[in-house]
Amino acid sequence: MFEEINFKILIAVIVILIVAGVFYLQKDSLQENNPDVIVGGDQDTHGCIGSAGYSWCESKGKCIRVFEEFCLDNVLSIVDSLGNYSGVYLESLGENEFNWFFKKEEEVLKLIVPGVAYIAEDVGRENYEKIEEYMNNNFELDSYNIADGVVGGLRGYYVNYMVCNLSFEHEEMEENEYGLLEPKGDNLNVRLDCGYFNKNDYN
């Protein structure tokens, strides 16, 4: 009887070892064919592990954590949504740096954020207001990054581990009777700058 039990235990151990061996062989093969793939139990179609905070970034061709790294895909999604909502389709200006102000303890600091810029010229005031409406409805407006003046204005937004500055300037300015500049017409040049920013990095 003891011999029969020992034989069953031996068979069970052998089966477990075979299953474990097959698993590790498949894991090694996957990593060898694609070293950027992160192996885990809840991979998506690109091999990214969602439970570990990873998602696929098409523009970088790899799995990233958006709270650690910038992904252009997120900006492209905003630009597309703005176009669909407002009818204004922003064009890429490429890489750019812009200012972002944030409060750390009792001090307001300025950070130079590397990112990307998009622009649209000759935008009607009504269409610009739709752009601003979309941003206000979908993202967090930051009080330290708001400015208004005669020439134009700026609105800063915190967008899922990114910051974006939406700015506009009047296309034409003219002097009034007092020699001061004032806008001529309602057409605006609109710009969107976005880059990586994680609030937790500055706490």
Distance between the termini: 66 Å
Q: Which outline best applies?
A: elongated
Overall pLDDT confidence: 84
**In DSSP terms, counting alpha (H) and pi (I) runs of 4 or more, how many helices?**
3
Briefly note the structural class of the backbone.
Answer: alpha+beta
Return Rg in Å. 26 Å
Stretches where pLDDT is under 50 for at least 5 consecutive residues are 22-31
Lateral arrangement of strands in the main beta sheet = 3-4-10-7-6-5
- What is the strand content? 35-45%
Order of helices and strands: HEEHEEHEEEEEE
For the largest beta-sheet, the strand count, sense and barrel status come to: 6 strands, antiparallel
Task: Give a written overview of the molecule.
The protein has three helices and ten strands. Residues 22-31 have low confidence and may be disordered. It has a domain at 70-203. The protein has helices at 2-33, 72-86, 125-138, and strands at residues 55-57, 62-64, 91-104, 107-123, 140-148, 152-158, 162-170, 173-175, 181-183, 188-196. The protein has a six-stranded antiparallel sheet, with helices on one face. The chain is an alpha+beta fold and 203 residues long. The protein is elongated and about 100 Å long. The termini are far apart.
